[in-house]
Write a structure and sequence with these properties.
Blueprint (H helix, E strand, L loop, with lengths): L1 H54 L1 H18 L6 H33 L8 H30 L3 H24 L4 H27 L11 H35 L2 H37 L3 H28 L1 H9 L6 H20 L1 H7 L3 H12 L1 H10 L6 H25 L4 H18 L1 H9 L5 H23 L2 H17 L7
Length: 512
């Protein structure tokens, strides 16, 4: 168990390094890109990408099944990795072609007939859409390669390639500023080049490191049927997620101008960055949950799943709380000129992220077992209700912020009601074990905010002293509360032992 925990910690550190680098670069490039493109062109590009992402939900479904089956196969005594990888590679190639054909037909119709795009920017929007579709094809065919890197737990690769990705994104910002072409068209071409470069880097690494990637192309029908069955149910989840996210973006564009889409996109960008931190931890821990289940260590898999859900929430809270209390000055530092209405959007989206962390984490035991039918029916049905509700409210004259309230309410119900019940029914976890874990997360949150709230009353975050003091109060309060009541005795002992070991290796002088 200790070796597993150390491997998870090591992989998490690699992924956190990757995310820190990407976050810093993304925050900078988002600000510059917004200034160079302008609010309208930035909103147009996000809307066009929304169409493409919505059409790619088929890939997300099959990709999730690919990752699970490769990881599960590695937990068996006699894995068939060569046949499995070859089969999913062929499946993704075929799927990529189908999505591009359907996307070109549906996407162009939507852009020309449904989306609110200024007439003088229509040609540029279509140009950007074509490049986004081609980039999507390459990303779809890349899924098996990413899945096998995760299955082998080579998270350091992501950290190293992130340096190349950061250089590419900075290059985009530089070229946007100096080249005299249509900025929207140029941005779509440069994004395409970076995506393809990163994709080729991963593929070259996989071919050199993993024997199954170099094997001949064969198609095993029995393996594909198992994956397709799993992916078929997962397809409902992916399509509902696409409806809830990209569908809402498109609906927002129908009722409001591109500037409103920009505001929501910026709020979601912050949420996505924070969620990626948590995704890094889940990426590091989920293979262990699946492998333990595959090797019949059900209790070990269960304990790791519940404990990691709690720690995932803690990690999210450590990031969300200071950002929430400092959102106004933080946005000014990031963007300079803050679009109207963005602050409230960000605040609601941050709270939503806390519940998303729980919802995503509690999917791990269902995912490990491979029985996702009930989850694929109930959760997507509930999530898909967001779109008609938002459409109805917009039709009745509701302001744009309404969609943030609807999404927050949906994730609260998913995280604290629906997912615990499904984990109990499907994975056979004791219902009250999951509820106690959720109560623990709630108590940690309530107790932790007391000190920051008091400091926030005394000091304003718009001064340097206030900004630093409030941020420090958030982290200090969270650290003390999580250590005091959020960690069990075994975890505290393990963390102290790991710290002593690291200090001893540095010659500090601690001894076990």
């Amino acid at each position: 168990m200790r070796n597993d925990s150390q491997r998870i910690a090591k992989n998490t550190l690699f992924l956190y390094f990757r995310m820190l680098l990407i976050m810093v670069v993304n925050l900078y490039t988002s600000r510059v890109t917004l200034n160079v493109l302008g609010v309208d062109d930035f909103g147009i590009y996000q809307t066009v990408c929304g169409v493409v992402t919505f059409l790619a939900f088929l890939s997300n479904a099959l990709g999730s099944g690919t990752s699970r089956f490769i990881t599960f196969e590695m937990g068996k005594e006699e894995p068939r990795l060569k046949e499995l990888f070859s089969t999913v590679r062929i499946a993704h190639l075929v799927l990529g072609v189908i999505i591009v054909i359907c996307g070109e037909l549906i996407g162009l119709w939507a852009i020309n007939n449904k989306l609110v795009i200024p007439a003088e920017r229509l040609n540029a929007a279509i140009f950007a859409f074509h490049f986004s579709m081609v980039a999507t094809f390459f990303q779809i065919t890349q899924v098996p390669y990413n899945a096998i890197i995760i299955a082998y737990e080579r998270m350091n690769v992501y950290a190293y390639v992130s340096i190349l990705e950061a250089i590419g994104n900075l290059g985009i910002v530089y070229l946007l500023d100096i080249l005299f072409f249509d900025k929207l068209e140029l941005y779509s071409v440069l994004m395409f080049i970076v995506i393809v470069t990163i994709m080729m880097t991963y593929r070259i690494y996989c071919r050199k490191q993993f024997e199954e990637v170099r094997s001949n192309l064969v198609f095993e029908k029995d393996l594909f049927k198992s994956i397709a069955s799993f992916a078929g149910w997962n397809l409902l989840t992916s399509s509902a997620s696409s409806l809830a996210n990209q569908g809402v973006t498109i609906v927002t564009n129908v009722f409001f101008n591109p500037a409103v889409v920009t505001v929501r996109t910026l709020a979601l960008k912050i949420n996505n960055i924070i969620n990626t931190f948590i995704g890094n931890f889940r990426t590091a821990v989920n293979p262990q949950i699946i492998k333990k289940y595959a090797s019949d260590d059900f209790e070990g898999s269960k304990k790791l799943a519940l404990e990691s859900t709690k720690y995932t929430y803690y990690l999210m809270l450590v990031i969300v709380m200071p950002v929430f209390f400092l959102v106004e000055p933080a946005l000014k530092i990031w963007l300079g000129e803050v679009p109207e209405g963005l602050e409230l959007f960000v605040e609601l989206t941050l709270i939503q992220g806390l519940f998303q962390a729980i919802d995503t984490s509690l999917y791990a035991p269902i995912y490990a077992k491979g029985r996702i039918k009930e989850n694929a029916i109930i959760c997507p049905l509930f999530e898909s209700l967001q779109l008609p509700i938002i459409y109805f409210l917009f039709k009745r004259g509701a302001p744009p912020i309404t969609l943030a309230w609807v999404e927050l309410g949906a994730y609260i119900i998913l995280a604290v009601v629906i997912k615990p019940i499904l984990v109990h029914l499907i994975a056979k976890y004791n219902y009250w074990d999951t509820i106690k874990m959720l109560i623990s997360c709630g108590v940690i949150t309530v107790v932790s905010i007391i000190i920051p709230v008091l400091v926030r009353i005394v000091l304003t975050p718009n001064t340097v002293i206030g900004f630093i003091s409030i941020g420090f109060a958030c982290e200090l309060s969270l650290g003390l509360v999580i250590w005091s009541i959020g960690l069990d005795k075994n975890m505290k002992v393990m963390l102290i032992q790991i710290l002593k070991h690291k200090l001893n290796s540095k010659g500090v002088g601690f001894y076990d």
